[in-house]
Amino acid sequence: MNDDTVRLATIGRIFRRRWRLLAALTLLGALVGYGISLLTPPKYTTSTSVLLPGAWEERELLTQAQLATSSAVVDRAAAKLDWSGVGGKELRGRVSAKAANANVVKISGTADTPERAQRLSDEVARQFIAFGERIAGDSTASGPESLRKKVEQTNRRITELANATDPGKTVESVQARTRLEELRTALEEAMTKLNESDPAANKASMVVMGAAAKPTTEAPPTRTQLVGGGALLFFLSAVIGHLAATRASRRLRTEAEIATALGSTLLGSVDVPGERPGEKPQDQSPRARIRRLLDLDTRWDVPPLRTSGGEESRRIRYGRVCARIRDRLPGSRRLLVVVPEGDEVARRAAGQLVVEAEGDPSPSSSSRGYPMLRVVDVSVHRPMVPDRGQESGVLVVLSAGSWTAAELAGIAGACADGRHEVVGIVLAGAVRARPAGPADPPPDAGDPPDDGTLAFAVHSHGTGGSP
Description:
Elements: H1 8-17, H2 19-39, E1 44-51, H3 58-68, H4 71-81, H5 88-92, E2 95-100, E3 104-111, H6 114-142, H7 144-164, H8 171-197, H9 199-203, E4 207-208, H10 223-247, H11 255-262, E5 266-273, H12 286-293, E6 306-307, H13 311-328, E7 334-340, H14 344-358, E8 372-378, E9 394-399, H15 405-417, E10 422-432
Parallel strand pairs: 5-10, 6-10, 7-8, 7-9, 9-10
Antiparallel strand pairs: 1-3, 1-4, 2-3
Helix pairs in contact: 2-10, 4-6, 7-8, 11-15, 13-14
Region (Disordered): 268-288, 433-467
Protein name: Polysaccharide biosynthesis protein
Membrane topology: Multi-pass membrane protein
């Protein structure tokens, strides 16, 4: 797992080196969004506001909003609309209501045409008011109305009692008539207060605040939103996928990790000029062309190429590596150079090492001369190294950040199976060639070529044998 922090430079490198792939995936996402918009018919939404006069608490308004979308209201609206194939169950998913400020319930309807959306909102609002009035009427008939009838009967009874009282002017008759009139007055005041506090009388008169407006635009998500959302989703998925892949990468990048995986010592690092366009033979198969078109044949997570120090600097590095090999194995005349198959930078570096070893400055000295190098490519999936012949060991040449610990351990195990000891490791890194100037004269005919050709390297994919 790579725990490096994701920096803006990393995202910028993704944009620079994978912009074709990102553009292709963004276009694909836009096409997917467009296809979804073709499969999903357009929707139109409009709203109707219903005013509830009187004093209402917040929870009462929420109850009224739920009542507006209940099956009792929506089913009646569906029966009135009588749309073919559309019943109350379907309409319940197209109707919504919410309690707004100032005792207003806002009812919204969604349909496939503006006209239907308008009719749906208006009809649901009418059925909501009718249902509310019906509930208010039922509560009035069963509650306060019956009480009013009882009060009227009591008033008539008081009148009868007052008429039946002795019309004389005795103290008792006057007191009785006075008490009956006080009772009648108290009942009338109680009924007045009851009428004023009756919630059904105050809250049943709901009104529609105008007809629903005919919608002129589609309800979200529109076709434009689906296309833009699909393009954005695919673009972000591609970027996040690149970041996740590099964080989950198990490729070894440091010298210590590589040396530990191979169980040997690092002898040095060498530079290889990066290939210029057109130098490397290109596969012309359709799949290879698509990979080149989308920049999939080059890695994006490698750091930018460093500027080369020049031909002389590179030759000094190769000479120092060969000198360390000579000092590590004095008197040795043969060495096997193992390169992971597919590591082009390492293969070119190994070829340059062969050229440097061929140009031994002291070939006559058996103890000071550079050993002869033989290069073999080894598959990291099924590593196989030739059996030991006259070689004194194995030199592994590879580039950093290309192989995992398991793959390098497999190469080390293959060397052990072939009875070879890994005597050293050489790391190869690609560099950007410095433009030629007056201080950098072109190499003469005797100098090794700048591109590190393998003209002198011997490649072997065999399973064993001596050189």
